[in-house]
Amino acid sequence: MGIVKRDEGKKVNSNINVTPMVDVMLVLLIIFMVITPMLNNKVNVDLPKAVSAKVMEDANKEDAVVVAVTRDGRTYLGGDVVSLDDLGPKVAAKLEKKVGSKQVYMRADVRANYGKVMDAVDGVRSAGVSELGLLTEKTDEEAAPAKK
């Protein structure tokens, strides 16, 4: 009996087939592209759409405590100009006289310096206020229903 020799080494194909790898990588790329924008919002918050009519009525009452910041940085308590240092004690004094809700409302000009607005919020918070309502105006788009 003789030795049978196989020549399988000549038939071996050593080329890598990259088509399945590319298919898998493209599917993974698409999956990550779809999922990534959803990962940015870590905390889901329901934001208010507009100021309710009741809040506006409460803010327009005579005994309501309203703080306003103008675009030139002046701070008003009611109709009187106050400094940021005096804002906390004056708000606290107004709230002592007030019976019922101890809520303070704030209005700020669109072009007001953000730092001045935050300083006014800090002044109101230093008076011990736990409820601060930020007032806005409805835009024309919000006031009128959308036409289809």
From TrEMBL:
One example GO MF annotation: transmembrane transporter activity
Coiled-coil positions: none
Membrane topology per the entry is:
Single-pass membrane protein; Single-pass type II membrane protein
Cellular compartments per GO CC: plasma membrane
The protein's predominant localisation is membrane
One GO-annotated biological process of the protein: protein transport
What is this protein called in UniProt?
Answer: Outer membrane transport energization protein ExbD
- Species of origin: Granulicella pectinivorans
* Lineage, uppermost ranks: Bacteria, Pseudomonadati, Acidobacteriota, Terriglobia, Terriglobales
